């Protein structure tokens, strides 16, 4: 602890400890959230990115605040102009060598900034609701846009470099239509805040503005001059392109959010802006659109027979259009011209001629529309312009035109048409429709609002505010005629600006989001894309031409489901995997970085996809070194390092190896610390999103370490895992390969989610009802023929505390059997009750904190860094910082290299070796006599036994030299090692004799190192909830609370809760379950998450039973033999608790509803009910409370903390065998999920 | 008995590369015929690298003659006339016809006291010349505190470039809590053009070992490392040999001279990373990690090798120590200026007449060093500037070269003392090109850790490349200035903090050269190839050899008439310029 010093930061006097860095002080005292990319709270300061620089008064240099400690009298500036400039330059330098795209070019070209890549992947994964929700974050009218959008996204699609652009718009329409077919997705709006906002105009801009205001809790009211809402969508776009039923649905969906609509109310005629303010509206959004047709500016155009395009289209929609027939000339080349031409055809025109003054190439209309028009027989007269309408009988009778040729490009980049002298010609026709542009009608806007010379409203870019305070404006009325998607974008952004204005009075633009782009370096070509399989774009089918030109039926058909999946798979995922959560991007936005400032050489790398779980995209690496430091400092692995020098410096495994060829342990912690997208997880979905995820905090379900983790959830079957925030758990955010990637088997698609019943020898999928009926029928049959104790109930030590408690209750109270077992335990062949007599419970005696803080460790058997990696890494770090360790193992394990002393006894002789050590300690008088006297009984018998042990014989039997045994005794007896922890894993059986644990505990007792602060036994299991299983009493020798069945008071308590006389039931079990199985006494079984058929020893069980019910996640070997299979909910769908190795009960959370339809607890309750036991607690909280109370009353905790649970409160030395007998436990993990995990990690080193 | 004449052949790396080994063999052959006449000895570098191979003939009575530019062919005459007949061959003497005795006049040789004089392979010769008396004195009569006091009194500052007072550094290391302290000798001499340390290690290795021993005694260390670049095989060979000899003499190992002082020295060969000359990177490299600097504090004095208190000095610093102990700190401090005491060794390179190694007292002016000691500018060129301090140093223009050599004075110019590399430039040197050369070196050698150093120096280099190609803009100069300031301000180690120095100082003193490149697309020194315009003047005889050699056919002309270069076709390869025998091709 450093001394407290006083210093000044940004003018503020503060005091802080001198061992803290400037960064730490600023962050902990909330003075400034200084930006940094290389700093990591879990690591010593590294200081590479130099983003965190600050100014120190009196120093010409700047200092990295992450590495500079505070000192008395320092005067620090963390946000001065010089600091900000340096940070901006720092980021610009980093970005000048950041050859990467934040987002795909599709999104960058979308006026509304829709996350196209995100919804492409969601559609590909069949997540249509999620896709629609994602689209609607930016565009509330996807069904409409899916039909009428001009598809700027597709114009920019990189896929076109290879084959064709992805059919983005078709896919949007597909997802949105699908959503409309059923119950439409509904957003969650903020509570109504009562503030009213008026919106003038119900076109796409007005609707969009209303929607986003409503989401924020405002009360928008739309005023529309025409009889129905929709603006140009309704009155400008013909029915055959946009069926009005679709528009109606989406408008209705918006109005349902509490948006009010008044139609037939025209601005300036029926109401004024002044009036709106007077009526209490806090702001007005003017979105009038531009629906007056511009004149052609030729002679006689106001005569009968000459229509404006927009008027004509509106009249068609309102069914007031004149009778069209004969020859129709449409003047113009935009979408309105085409709409008018195609509508005229449908209205009865015989010959439609489109007159355009440039060529097809320059036509502003959507090329797809031009194609469609041509297919329908519309003639195109290019390079011709109208000159004069010729009149006969007060009506037009022909149009004089002139030929044009193209000259130099004009401001828009299109070549300017020039009249060809003397080329006039005349087109005789019956109707002329002029569609040469539109403008707004601003007659009703009133004073105070500035109008431009183009007759548009002057509104500020980005903020949409007009000259008149409180009045905002956007859409066509500001920009002139544009696309629906532009208007939608304006509506959303205006809503944001209006919200800001009415809540704070401030008008400010949103800061431009920084986007790294590869085309800042060079134009991207096909060669820059990842290898893509050629696949033509799927086009949507269309109504046959002959059919469609007679009606207004929708021309373009939607994709079918299969096409949608295939087409969405064509997306090349150009955007970054962390495009939504990139620290680098956030800082670049904050500091207004210009990626093009330092143009020059850049490094270009191939993306490395060779590792099964980790993707390395070095193009995105900023060489901050966090991954290198994490791998070296936290894991002691150093698989990654800096390679090369200078500008070519890169982080990768040494010697050009791939990551999995290095000593990488695939823990993926590097992924969590990477501040950019350089290290990402290869997600198992085939698509990488990225998507905004919901964070659900939970606990790992593999080993007993109980690591906290975060589940990143999009949907119950679309999630992945990363480390929890460091402050949340003992693992400080670290995870191992199982914790991080072990979720993948759950998503493998092989999960069994439907109940099954055996019919005529075959398992057949059925409904839950039928499955339960089959159970009831089978149970009745068994009960008729056999005693309850001939039924077995087994459960996996991966089930939650609550599930295990309920399963025990089901067995004992509902079925009346005490045959509770975990096959996992049986298979491991360990004595899970080894210490019951000695200590009163077979449990750890230290907690995670004590484990991490010891100064001497003893490891017996097993391989901690492989079996329970995260706590083992912690201990390894402790060893590197000075703690000593003894490793006793017949093989070389990872920890051997870090040990002070190692011993490699022959297999099965560990007990002998421990006896030798104890004998030596006793002989020297180096045991804790005082402790032995006060804490233990039966010491004399042990002393007599150990006195017989001769060191030379031990050495001979174990192969460990006497000298080494003495050295171990020396280290153990060294009094400076005050905190001594022995590490033992009950399930790690390859190197163990039956009584190793007893001998080890005896040693701890002799040294006085058990049940005292800081020292003791760390007892691990391979299974996440082994301790929970014991405490839930899921064991024929134990009751809930973890106490022996002989504890009458507890039996009484439990019996009362279960309304069952337990005495008789638990008394009946005097032989072990294994005996019963061997004697074929068991006739029926209920197995939950267990797969005995996978083990050699118990695979006979499934064949010998008369009735077998299996609940599991997968159709395991055992499940395939079941009479009834019940799909369980997965661990990710469970609310409850897991109890880790040291007895800490940690909450786990469900990420969503179970995909199988019922939680495991619900299934057990249902089984109990049908077995005639309807009194189970209904909620998981209730079960949790009941179990907690039972634990409390039994006086038991998860670990032995300062006292023993023996009747006399003392530790009992007892006899144990030291036969040199190595146990060959079966290596096949019986739990199906473990087996799948092992298959998953099989190709990599763990 | 009349003492025999001895022949001393300079076999430092400079002597060897000039052919010293063949000269040595020639003497050996002669010796076989006249075994009574003389004996042959190896010696190191005396500093006159421009005159290697140097051969010194000593008569045993304190007289010697030094022959320069000796070739194997000249040996028989030297043997015949000098060794056998006792006649000096005046035209071959370095002090003879070419009047170069003044090379030594202004030198004060403390560090180089034995260089070129003794046989570096002989511990006896080292001892005979007063070697290992300082460690004896220290062990016999001085406390560690007194040793430190003496070094403090000398005013010696770190000669590796940092210039931190050596005594103070030792004091910190001595005061640092903990046992297992280390002494490290930084022999990772990486500056292009610098070879002071190599020369000392090759010519007088024991002096370095003795300095380390004294330091170890002073701070309480019992283990030392010499971190030497593997590119110095001769130095490493000499060191290994010297360490073995010191062991044999009982000067290394346990309980040295029965005084309870233990000291071992290990050699660690560096793999050629320039940045490993930075002390924290050097420590990382010894520990087996990538040579990457880390933030200081903690300084190595408190947390160095394996996290233990460590004192690091460079070769030249250690080579001063024994002299200071024997002659007293005050004697050392008598040389130099108030700010900078003692002497400094410089490796002279570039457009100077006498290239090589010199040791001069602090306070001498740069001009005096260039002109009086080193004979002025080669080929009678115009003195333009010097670059001091290697790639991280700075340029000092000729008109500032009357300042004394002194840490403070040099820093004021924007240059640094550095480790002693000194490059002399004349009017044919383009300052932009010089800056580009050094920046490309530091850019390549950046460890890549700090953003500004890794990418910023690259961007600066690209700007310089653009300027020398005639594609620079005025804005580029502003960007250079800003990047320089930020790289200097926000880099962890000296490499990054000083990498912009050549650019900063050339911009400061020779901005007009940059501007000429940018505005006029001209390189005033006619160095930057893309900016040169070649033409043929009236001296052309029409021989046609330029036209024949031109790879693009840009030269045309009738035989025996003046040829013409088509500048649109010219790719500025300079082949015509090289091939013309009549100085008819000009470039500007």
Structure description:
The complex is a heterodimer of chains A (1246) and B (588). By secondary structure, chain A is an alpha/beta fold. In chain A, the strands form 13 sheets. Chain A has a 7-stranded mixed sheet with strand order 30-29-43-42-41-31-32. In chain A, a hairpin with a 2-residue loop joins β29 and β30. In chain A, α14 packs across α15 and α32 packs parallel to α37 (996-1006). The longest helix of chain A is centred in the middle third of the chain and has 21 residues, at 484-504. The radius of gyration of chain A is 38 Å and the shape is elongated. Chain B folds into 5 domains: 5-99, Glutaredoxin; 123-332, NADH-ubiquinone oxidoreductase 51kDa subunit (Rossmann fold, 3-Layer(aba) Sandwich); 343-426, Ubiquitin-like (UB roll); 431-520, NADH-ubiquinone oxidoreductase 51kDa subunit, iron-sulphur binding domain (de novo design (two linked rop proteins)); 532-587, 2-Layer Sandwich (Alpha-Beta Plaits). In chain B, the strands form 5 sheets. Chain B has a 5-stranded mixed sheet, with helices on both faces. In chain B, α8 (196-203) packs parallel to α10, α17 packs antiparallel against α18 (474-489) and α20 packs across α21. Chain B is globular, with a radius of gyration of 26 Å. The A-B interface holds A 45-51, 53, 60-62, 64, 67-69, 86, 89-90, 93-94, 96-97, 598, 600-601, 622-623, 625, 641-642, 644-649 and B 273, 275, 290, 292, 294-295, 297, 443-452, 454-459, 462, 482-483, 486, 488-492, 497.
User: Which runs of chain B of at least 5 residues are low in confidence (pLDDT < 50)?
Assistant: none
* Helix content class of chain B: 25-40%
How can the largest sheet of chain B be summarized? 5 strands, mixed
Q: For the largest beta sheet of chain B, what order do the strands appear in spatially?
A: 7-8-6-5-9
Question: Which features would summarize this protein structure in a list?
Answer:
heterodimer; A: 1246 residues; alpha/beta; seven-stranded mixed beta sheet; 16% strand; B: alpha/beta; Glutaredoxin; Rossmann fold; Ubiquitin-like (UB roll); 5 domains; five-stranded mixed beta sheet; 18 strands
